[in-house]
Amino acid sequence: MKFGFFDDNEKEYVITTPKTPLPWINYLGCDNFFSLYSNTCGGYTFYKDAKLLRLTRYRYNNIPTDTGGKYFYINDNGTIWNPGWQPTKTELDSYECRHGLGYSRITSSKNKLKACVTAFVPLEDNCEINQVLLTNDSTDTKTFSLFSYVEFCLWNAVDDMTNFQRNLSIGEVEVDGSEIYHKTEYRERRNHYAIFAANQKADGFDTSRDAFLGAYNATDDPAVVNSKCSANSIASGWSPIGSHHFNITLKPGESKSLIFVLGYIENKEEDKWESLNIINKKPAKAMLSRYSSDEQVTVALNNLKDHWNQLLSKYVVSCKDDKLCRMVNIWNQYQCIVTFNMSRSASYYESGTGRGMGFRDSCQDLLGFVHLIPDRARERIIDIASTQFEDGSAYHQYQPLTKKGNLDIGSGFNDDPLWLIACVSAYIRETGDLSILGETVPFDNDESKTASLLEHLRRSFDYTLTHLGPHKLPLIGRADWNDCLNLNCFSKEPGESFQTTGPSEGPIAESVFIAGMFVKYGKEYATICHELNDFEEEVRALAAVESMNKAVLESGWDGQWFLRAYDANSNKVGSHECTEGKIFIEPQGFCVLAGIGVEEGLAKKALDSVKEHLDTKYGIMLLQPAYSKYYLNLGEISSYPPGYKENAGIFCHNNPWVSIAESVIGRGDRAFEIYQKTCPAYLEDISEIHRTEPYVYSQMIAGADAVFHGEAKNSWLTGTAAWTFVNVSQYILGIQPDYKGLVINPCVPSGFGDFTITREFRNAIYYISIKNEHNTQKGISKLIVDDKEMFSNLIPFEKGKTTYYVTAIME
Amino acid sequence: MKFGFFDDNEKEYVITTPKTPLPWINYLGCDNFFSLYSNTCGGYTFYKDAKLLRLTRYRYNNIPTDTGGKYFYINDNGTIWNPGWQPTKTELDSYECRHGLGYSRITSSKNKLKACVTAFVPLEDNCEINQVLLTNDSTDTKTFSLFSYVEFCLWNAVDDMTNFQRNLSIGEVEVDGSEIYHKTEYRERRNHYAIFAANQKADGFDTSRDAFLGAYNATDDPAVVNSKCSANSIASGWSPIGSHHFNITLKPGESKSLIFVLGYIENKEEDKWESLNIINKKPAKAMLSRYSSDEQVTVALNNLKDHWNQLLSKYVVSCKDDKLCRMVNIWNQYQCIVTFNMSRSASYYESGTGRGMGFRDSCQDLLGFVHLIPDRARERIIDIASTQFEDGSAYHQYQPLTKKGNLDIGSGFNDDPLWLIACVSAYIRETGDLSILGETVPFDNDESKTASLLEHLRRSFDYTLTHLGPHKLPLIGRADWNDCLNLNCFSKEPGESFQTTGPSEGPIAESVFIAGMFVKYGKEYATICHELNDFEEEVRALAAVESMNKAVLESGWDGQWFLRAYDANSNKVGSHECTEGKIFIEPQGFCVLAGIGVEEGLAKKALDSVKEHLDTKYGIMLLQPAYSKYYLNLGEISSYPPGYKENAGIFCHNNPWVSIAESVIGRGDRAFEIYQKTCPAYLEDISEIHRTEPYVYSQMIAGADAVFHGEAKNSWLTGTAAWTFVNVSQYILGIQPDYKGLVINPCVPSGFGDFTITREFRNAIYYISIKNEHNTQKGISKLIVDDKEMFSNLIPFEKGKTTYYVTAIME
């Protein structure tokens, strides 16, 4: 069942009912000021940090779902309704929500009154604009009331929901005409306040939640809206809100627009006050003046659209599969940027109160956005590398504001170091900018201990090489990519972190997955050395890679597939000898995409085993059979009920690894089948099963062992976005950034047909046309660049050349 | 305006409308299993620790207020209502909530169907019982549906409201007939589950919140209740709930009772499972069998009532002031026990997610419950003293489960050590048990470093003595009793803790309040030494006390009142020389009750100044004039808006100090006036202003500078309970436990009349009759014990004697 449709022309997803299976959201904001915005106007707003500087309150796991947002109420002759349906849930005569790139627009009508709410965060200011356009579609004059409503958060979202003995006494506001200022704690150490203002003179206002709602009332039944009369309340403690009231009369056919701005203002210490306890409102008023007319708002919205259109013009495919096109050209790239902005902090599943940016998360996210924002990717790489330790290991997380490593979780996740090579090589391949390798980067953010970024990579490489176990495979440490495979943990106490309990270095437990990574990114490291003409280091690296390759073939192969690991007693994990968890997805994907066992025929065997044992119609499960009980020696993975999360869920992040692996061995049909299974656009028709947004990836889909097989969870903030984009853009469509230029190496399913790609690469534009007359699945036989035939599938990059016309022929 | 009345006979407060200004709650549970229970059935349940082992979910600061509880829904021919009004808020034909001691009973009716819900935690089991009695008061047969509803918390209340990417996948239940088992995480490291069961065969059940409520529905409109048909849902992830459905038919006049039990069960590791993934239910079924009949429930409830009646029989006053009698005999003592059980963890203002037991909080709470549960007071003292450091300082908080000091907050609150003397002396005065002083008690919970409790007291005493500032007054450190007076903090960053920022030891800033404490409890320490015949130490202690007394008179007197402190620059705080914060309440109360300046006439002057500058009709404010802005050198106190909390709020905890001080100088009228102003029973008639429960004290009442002057906040968990009980029982009514026996030293207002007190003391019962024919305010002139006239106001304790008949004559 569908709950909307894609409008590819407008780059929008159009939701046609407010009653989606779960709230379907969008992200507003590009830089420092962000809002989560659901299809019923739910969500919240923050500045830079979703925990520390939250402007509006949101109750996660609330009843009803997703009540809390920026609401507008209309009282039209006693019928009280919201354009976004929630919270009154008054049935609407029409409803449409368009989630676009950085903006959302909800249009609905009731009793021939139409309301259109357009919400976005402009590029240049720290505010969210809500433009409300009201139109009388009836033949009679209509007189009605419009009320706005936001509930302020007292800034620190964790403190706000726990420290009531203080918080209920500190709320403070100021009201100046239609401007409502939320200034809690501004009297003391904060130098910032929030503003919620309307661009026209209001007929009343409220700032006390109790006054607005009435005692024991929910937001579905506010006393003030009922009575059509604001209390003009000034909050003192308890819960400050912002609400405006407008009495409006519209003649038949007449429209009226109102602009509401919710903004964040910082003042310098010396400019905090206008007079005793009266805040300095000048910067707020200056901001409001930039959005006081419909014309200004239209310009700001158009600027925002231009910004996104320009960003997304860097990779554009045209082919006969609409679903693939819209994912590649719009939604997958959009989601990659959102993961850049949000990391794993604020979604409808991530409560915005955890603080860490993951080392490996950030490295992998970068694979998805490096072509869009290479400069910011460069910054991000330096930030990440700066948290590495001198021995090459890394903090597993770092704090986004201080950019320092998170001591609470520390290090010991032994895949982390290699992801640094992954993201640096992706950056260089994209940009050709080898200079980044010469950047001076501290260890552990200590400026007295620095080295070149290249040296950081060497330490990443050597960390793995010097932490091998009995089978010469890499030690797993606390965990590898699978944070829930905790082979050195042995936790018996509820509440203990599976990730930090137990020693960070176990001397026995080994990961075949990290071995695969080492082969993949060890080769990358060798290539980087080659590019720098350091052939000695290149040879050293390749020799180590070859040894690892051998170790995997000798001790990492189980007969029909790759083993997952050896536990702390050197017992096999992910072997046919195991009772449960016989086969895991990760090593099959990563070993093959690294090229291990391809020549020996093991790669094909491993991928066939994946299909036989792990495949479902909704994607490939992480392991089988699911663990039916808790295993002390395995850790968190066995703590989940079968079919969920790492315990045999379809963990979408690793599905593209297998798809890529299939393309490595040339099976385009299978690679594409895997791509489709978890790709949201292809799941739109089964939204009642999939439940999350059909325009973005989710972290997990319940596996075959689960009660609700096919149900997705944790949409938006997942490394799945980056890896699926890498898969579809580089391996399926086959446009691969390489050190010397773009490589064309597609791997498509039968019947895919011809396709074209417009690719911006190193400030040049490539118009690439790929012909596939003979229905070939893999590779090209002929490459013509600007009428000149090439001798390989590489389009050599030529400095200064701005346009490339490319034709590639699949044999 | 009143919202109910006291039923003194039943020891109940009877609430006559669900629409109280704020939820008015009760506490169920005496030992390990507790529920908060509001007058609309809101609240939550936990086992031992409100953060780590929470059975049911509760959303603080929710909209509507206080939705979340153990609800019963009745669908009577389409009219859907709840006996507690919430959450449907269907108007009731009658409503009554009786909060008793450890139980609550809500009786209401709609359309001639009566429902009576009795909720309590039995003495012997870890469960809450809800007995629902339904009566058809109409003349027709009634057929209707009853649904139960609880929402389970996934145990750790903080994780439950933040870690959704895990939690939405782990919920698990089992259903066995009418027994619903919540077993999330039992598969792995938990050895406990929750049970929610009915004593009769249900017609249906639900365990999935979404199935029960329906998508986007609130608890005011559950789909299943609407349809009168359970979905028999088995939760898998998302939000597990427990709901039963009963189809009931009642003839005119007929009644039916149902018993619901919500319980907590722990199994031993080896007894966890009945079979693979099927939990061992034996202990749950055994518990249910103890509450399967109305007779069993009645016995259990009567046992609970007996328990409380016996506890409260230890201090019973009879006088002509009903309000005073009900506070002394019932509610104040009840609240003292609740503070013993809860410390500051779980109330409607304390979210149950903070972990610390305060060192000073616990010492002071003990003053209020030591006469009720002396054995548990003894244990508590040892727990507290075990967190002391070798130098006499103390962790400011300790963890209730581990009983270890809380490193996050550390030490440096320089009043803490002296409170240990306060509580130990109170214990010895009450029990005569000097043996506690010989107990071996560790420092910092390190069994390799121990000393006698007496030595701990000496270190408390000497810590103060060796930490004096330039005026020979005690250094304040991080703060003294007033946690918000942070003279060594200088915090500029929002979010920094005022309590832990800055040095713990400032070498300059001094507290006159701690000086008062030192004089008071230094004398106590000297008396203890005297009792142990250590006259040398007694003399040393008294000399030090005398020096401190002198230092206060020399450097702590401001002309009309006692100074509050010297800041880190040795500038005065709480002086007429200050622009704001000229006079503080704490030193006036504590210096005078310690006897400082009484002879010199300064005590009277100080208390007159309190009346002149700090008094309001709702109590005495903490300081005046309120701080209008943030002072770096003063800290958190100036962070609050004027009139709230420590910034000139009426901080109820310290009002009894002034009342006691007034009694020290013999002004009974004024002492009693102060007592009355913050005493909830006297505020019942202005509940629309006071807002919190009229049967328990609140921490704070908004001061004269506040917008809502007279509005109280943070009821239940406050040291006010203990201090007001000390005041009224020992200083106003004048029954003072002393080392050698009971001292009779009343200080009452004119017109108070004769009164009698029954007091259990050291296993003897004292029947005390106090005659006041001449309307004397202070002291007695004649004391007759068992027909024998005494030569002082002491009733000497005689070992073995079990009954004392006492007559005291006020001149």
TrEMBL record, chains A, B:
Transferase keyword on record: yes
Record GO biological process: carbohydrate metabolic process
SUPFAM superfamilies hit by this protein: Galactose mutarotase-like (SSF74650), Six-hairpin glycosidases (SSF48208)
InterPro entries xrefs: 6-hairpin_glycosidase_sf, 6hp_glycosidase-like_sf, Gal_mutarotase_sf_dom, GH65_N, GH94_catalytic, GH94_Enzymes, GH94N_CBP, Glyco_hydrolase_94_b-supersand
SMART domains: CBM_X
Pfam families the record matches: GH94_b-supersand (PF06165), Glyco_hydro_94 (PF17167)
Residue ranges of domain Glycosyl hydrolase 94 supersandwich in the record: 11-277
Entry keyword annotation includes Glycosyltransferase: yes
Keyword tags: Glycosyltransferase, Transferase
GO molecular function, one term: carbohydrate binding
Gene3D superfamilies named in the record: 1.50.10.10, Glycoside hydrolase, family 65, N-terminal domain, Maltose phosphorylase, domain 3, mpn423 like domain
Annotated Glycosyl hydrolase 94 catalytic domain residues: 307-734
Name this protein carries in UniProt: Cellobiose phosphorylase
